[in-house]
Structure formats: C-alpha cells, structure tokens
C-alpha cells in the first residue's frame, strides 16, 4: 500500500467560528495554513451525542481520545447513569439495592461521596438528587 495517512490530534486546537475571539484564526499560523491548503483533511465533532455525551455538553480530551481510538461512539458513564435515573433501572442496580437495603435493615445512614457539580462530563447534580429520592423511598 503506497498511500499513507496521519491522524494528528492537537489538544486545545480547533476550527472555530473565525470571530474576534477565535485565537487560532486570528494568529499567524503559516505552517498550519500550508497543511490545510495542501493536504486533504476533515473536521470531527467532539462534543455532545457525537462522543457519547448529552446533547450540547462540551467534550474534553479524555472523551475525544476514547472515541477516536474506538472508531465509534463510546457512551460515557454520565449518559449511562442519566438513562438509568430516567428509566428507574438504577433502582435495580445491585450495589444501590445492597447499600440502601443494608442501611434500612440495620438502622444505618447512607453517606454519598463523589463529584457533585453541574460540570457535566464527570458529574451531574441530578445523580445526587436521584440518590436522595431513593433514600426517601427506603425511608432512610
């Protein structure tokens, strides 16, 4: 095979909207411009449902690299947990059932530990609220 291809990942470098705040567009990049004019290239979508995140959620390096390496959409844990909260399948999660059942049967508390923010890629406040709802269902 005589044709070669190169996959080049430049974290933090993107094709923007060419506005006044688009630093890459507004900076002299002669070698980059040469590459873009001379060689075939394409643009990838690296956010939202294209990389297994909720629609409109910006991606990050980790998410982008996982999807490029897989060659398909890799649904992120955030999406999987969102779905399980929405369809209530989280109520059948063995670890959830075990923790809440143990606490109820033994008069114990349940302590939540983890990321709680609206950051989006690694955490969601909705997950905490769902755990609080589950605790209420167990009368804990």
Outline the structure in words.
This protein is mainly alpha-helical and 140 residues long. The protein has a domain at 77-137. Helices cover 39% and strands 0% of the residues. It has helices at 30-38, 61-70, 77-86, 94-105, 125-137. The termini are far apart. Residues 81-139 form the BPG-independent PGAM N-terminal domain. One of its GO terms (molecular function) is phosphoglycerate mutase activity.
Furnish the topology, listing elements before pairings.
Layout: H1 30-38, H2 61-70, H3 77-86, H4 94-105, H5 125-137
Quick structural gist:
This protein is mostly helical and 140 residues long. It is 39% helix and 0% strand.
> Quaternary arrangement of the chains shown?
single chain
- How much helical structure, as a percent, in the residues? 25-40%
Q: Which structural class fits the helix and strand makeup? A: mainly alpha
CA radius of gyration: 22 Å
Instruction: List segments where confidence is low: pLDDT < 50 over at least 5 consecutive residues.
Output: none
Distance between the termini: 65 Å
Strand tally: 0
Main beta-sheet strand count, sense and barrel state:
none
Overall average pLDDT? 90
The total of helices stands at 5
- Proportion of residues in β-strands: under 5%
Give me some keywords for this one.
140 residues; mainly alpha; 5 helices
């Amino acid at each position: 095979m005589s044709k070669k291809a190169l996959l080049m990942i430049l974290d933090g470098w993107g094709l923007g909207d060419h506005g006044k705040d688009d630093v890459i567009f507004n900076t002299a990049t002669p070698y980059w411009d040469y590459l873009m004019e001379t060689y075939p290239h394409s643009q990838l979508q690296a956010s939202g449902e294209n990389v297994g995140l909720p629609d409109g959620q910006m991606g990050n390096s980790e998410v982008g690299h996982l999807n490029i390496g897989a060659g398909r959409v890799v649904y992120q844990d955030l999406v999987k947990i969102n779905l399980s909260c929405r369809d209530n399948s989280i109520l059948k999660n063995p670890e959830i059932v075990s923790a809440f059942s143990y606490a109820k049967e033994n008069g114990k508390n349940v302590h939540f530990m983890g990321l709680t923010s609206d950051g989006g890629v690694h955490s969601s406040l909705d997950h905490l609220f769902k755990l609080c709802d589950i605790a209420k269902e167990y009368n804990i």
